[in-house]
């Protein structure tokens, strides 16, 4: 009986301590919020105590490949409930945590630019990404991030990332694959273009980064087989990425999906990249970025002149491969999907006419250069509109490094600053922000390139398809 009494007293003491600590913390942060002139944001659809219901519904939506649409539907429902536009809300997440969700351009701009030092990737993302990506730039914070940025930034000058000869060889391989599926009427059967685009960008990105392509297009097609290990690298890389994406939905429980199979895929990816890292390091520091054929720029060889740490070289290569390959393939997929939509045939015909006039036909091409493509106005309008409707990173998250605030979202009208505690997550959706009718007009969901006639993708956050920074540079500039 005495033991039971002691246990009850100890349990009560722990409970009282937890309650006291929580109340004290709440009072402290309330005082800090008042000092900063902050007001509370409205509660979101999911605010039940455990936070599990929102996570469950979010995972369901992810498995159905409609997570961005799910978020948009929840925000629309909330706006109907409160009777006004809502750009920022508080959500309950597991273990009684309050997470901020925003789709306000001012808040997103603050996190990614003007208040960059107040926010970082957070321990959940870095812990989830690190097994595959190491300490590379997309899985690092603070000094490690600054180091990665300083190491990588010199490699992204235009002369080094605008090699259209490299890209042309892989586009021709894509055309070869398509030609094999042509029927007697000159048309192919139904094809999964997205898979072909992911192989195209994998081939070009690996040649740019490693100096040697995995040759997944022709190898997969069965006519000019690539090495068996190369194709298994592509499969292992894809499966590893899927695990990271699913783990991101689980927050601090990402480790639940880091299974033995995941670790096996990661080991295969690392083994493949290590092979090229070893070759680059043996060539020494005097290569000056020259590899393959004379005059060819190879990212790895140039990077090896800056560091001889094999683990860092592998990590940075995988981070840039992730950014450059997936963003490009995803955008190509959505672009062709949109152009195939019957309601946009007039846009397709106009764009085709512009392309033929500016660059010629496949059999009779004119001078095609990086600069001329960037200068083709209607083409750029179409690309911007595709990135607006289908941003490569639809949902992302940052974590506050100290007690701070965001410019808007608080108060009865949502126009006051909101308080952000140190360690609090802020989730933001570029996908939903890009479809806000108050920002883009009543046709915000419509693909209309002409809307770019008098506007551009500026730094104010009204369009940030690749979330800004070096990630934007690698994704938008890699061949």
From TrEMBL:
Compartment(s) of residence: Membrane
Main location class: membrane
GO cellular component entries: membrane
One Pfam family, short name: p450
Xref: InterPro entries: Cyt_P450, Cyt_P450_E_CYP52_ascomycetes, Cyt_P450_E_CYP52_fungi, Cyt_P450_E_grp-II, Cyt_P450_sf
GO MF entries: heme binding; iron ion binding; oxidoreductase activity, acting on paired donors, with incorporation or reduction of molecular oxygen, reduced flavin or flavoprotein as one donor, and incorporation of one atom of oxygen
Keywords: Heme, Iron, Membrane, Metal-binding, Monooxygenase, Oxidoreductase, Transmembrane, Transmembrane helix
Family of this protein: Belongs to the cytochrome P450 family.
Record PANTHER family: P450, PUTATIVE (EUROFUNG)-RELATED
Designated name of the protein: Cytochrome P450 52A12
Protein species of origin: Ophiocordyceps sinensis (strain Co18 / CGMCC 3.14243)
């Amino acid at each position: 009986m005495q033991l039971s009494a002691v246990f009850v007293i100890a349990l009560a003491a722990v409970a009282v301590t937890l309650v006291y600590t929580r109340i004290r913390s709440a009072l402290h942060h309330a005082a800090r919020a008042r000092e900063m002139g902050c007001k509370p944001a409205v509660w979101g659809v999911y605010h039940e105590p455990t936070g599990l219901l929102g996570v469950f519904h979010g995972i369901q939506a992810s498995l159905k490949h409609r997570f961005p649409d799910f978020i948009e539907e929840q925000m629309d429902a909330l706006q109907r409930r409160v009777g006004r536009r809502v750009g920022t809300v508080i959500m309950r997440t597991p273990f009684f945590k309050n997470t901020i969700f925003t789709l306000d351009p001012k808040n997103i701009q603050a996190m990614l630019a003007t208040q960059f030092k107040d926010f970082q990737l957070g321990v959940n993302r870095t812990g989830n990404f690190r097994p595959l990506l190491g300490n590379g730039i997309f899985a690092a914070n603070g000094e490690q991030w600054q180091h990665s940025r300083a190491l990588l930034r010199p490699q992204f000058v235009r002369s080094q990332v605008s090699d259209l000869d490299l890209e042309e060889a892989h586009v021709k391989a894509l055309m070869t694959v398509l030609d094999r599926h042509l029927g007697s009427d000159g048309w192919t059967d139904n094809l999964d273009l997205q898979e072909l685009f992911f192989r195209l960008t994998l081939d070009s990105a690996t040649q740019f980064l490693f100096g040697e392509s995995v040759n997944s297009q022709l190898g997969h097609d069965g006519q000019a087989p690539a090495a068996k290990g190369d194709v298994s690298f592509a499969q292992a890389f894809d499966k590893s990425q899927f695990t990271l994406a699913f783990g991101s939905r689980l927050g601090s429980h990402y480790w639940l999906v880091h299974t033995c199979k995941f670790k096996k895929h990661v080991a295969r990816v690392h083994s493949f990249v290590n092979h090229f890292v070893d070759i680059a390091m043996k060539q020494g520091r005097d290569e000056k970025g020259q590899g393959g054929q004379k005059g060819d720029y190879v990212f790895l060889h140039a990077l090896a002149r800056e560091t001889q740490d094999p683990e860092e070289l592998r990590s940075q290569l995988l981070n840039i491969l992730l950014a450059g390959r997936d963003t490009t393939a995803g955008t190509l997929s959505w672009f062709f999907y949109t152009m195939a939509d019957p309601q946009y045939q007039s846009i397709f015909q106009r764009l085709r006419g512009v392309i033929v006039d500016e660059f010629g036909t496949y059999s009779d091409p004119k001078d095609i250069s990086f600069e001329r493509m960037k200068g083709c106005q209607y083409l750029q309008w179409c690309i911007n509109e595709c990135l607006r409707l289908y941003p490569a990173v639809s949902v992302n998250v940052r974590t506050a490094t100290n007690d701070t605030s965001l410019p808007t979202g608080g108060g009865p009208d949502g126009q006051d600053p909101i308080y952000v505690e140190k360690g609090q997550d802020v989730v933001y959706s570029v996908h939903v922000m890009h479809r806000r009718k108050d920002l883009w007009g009543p046709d915000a969901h419509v693909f209309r390139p002409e809307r770019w006639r008098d506007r551009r993708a500026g730094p104010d956050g009204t369009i940030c398809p690749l979330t800004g920074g070096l990630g934007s540079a690698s994704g938008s500039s890699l061949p």
